[in-house]
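Hey,
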Amino acid sequence: MKINNIGSENIKQDEKVNDKIEGKDDIGSFSYYLEKYREPVRAAVHFGIQCMIFEEFENFMEDRIGMDFIRGDKIIKDYRNGYRTRESISTSVGPLEDLRIPRNRLGGFVPAAIPRKKRVYDQMAELVTSLFINGVATRGIRRAFQRVYNKCLPGISNERVSNITRSLIEDYNKWIKRPIQKEFTFLIADAIYLSLKRGTKSREALLSVIGITDEGQKEFLFFQFGGTEKSTSYDEIFLNLKNRGLNFKNVKNITIDGSPGLISSAISHFGEKKVQRCTVHKTENILDKVSDEYKAEVKGFLNRIWNSQSKSEAIRKIKDFAETYSEKFPGAVACLIQDKDSLLRYYNFPSYTWKSVRNTNLIERSFKEVRRRTKPMDILSSEDGALKIIFGIVENINVRWERKSHWKKMVK
């Protein structure tokens, strides 16, 4: 395929336009389209489609240049004859303006991409971000273009693919400011620790909040890197949710881990009687105060407490726990007793909510997907890199959650 120097006639008749295009060719470079749109994904879609059209034209003209064709009583030689411009084509990423379609003297060239443009444009618009979100490294994205379209798209370098995916950060910044439309009555807040490279490798807290409505509709409401789990960090998050429309008075319960900053902030914004301590985190804290030979036994006892059929039954089992282990493990007993009330608040709600309300596992399970997809690639080399892929995954999770109620399968 020859893209440069498609025809001296073409260059002469459009000299002024080509002077503005890097390389002075008919297609231009990716940087030309990036400057034109200031939107990396739309620029990539236009550039890719333009490359496909010109390659189709080269194949169309391969056996026609200089050949004699009979038209009426004349014999005419066919050759390239500039191009026509299609002013605008609507796509899912916005209009593509001034799409160039090459033409020949005798005509007959119809780009295959044009009749099926809706499907092609939408595929190309989503390809880069979709592959990136699903854990494909930037070098693999360029190869994917070649596999999907069976074409080598010049100018789609690894560096430029990285530029394209930067648009995800802009989308993330809009996402954390979007209005909250639903009435969320249950909140789950926790920090997931991910390895990040800021000069040196470090583990940093990704502070996250999920909301659940009375009908069981779930939604990721917020996430951001907070460095450490300080109360000021969560204060900012809760104020963000409030400013976006979350009605704090309608929140019946907020489930949190045991970090002092989160506990302090949650009590400050929602009141102590709405705070549910995570039973999974508490179990881990208690087991830290138990010798190895008793860990399995104590864990089984704690699980029986959390799975009691009523609050009164759970309280009786906590008393039994204290009597059984007060001499052997006084620290473990004290750890359980001191937070008894906040550990059993989930019994104030319908039984089909208990498994979700009593712990923060919903957040942990969601981020297993993040860890799985980022494992084969060095995507967490920066905060922006991490936010891009996490945002894409979280958006997909939210779409999936919209399809069904979280409670429905639990209702007897």
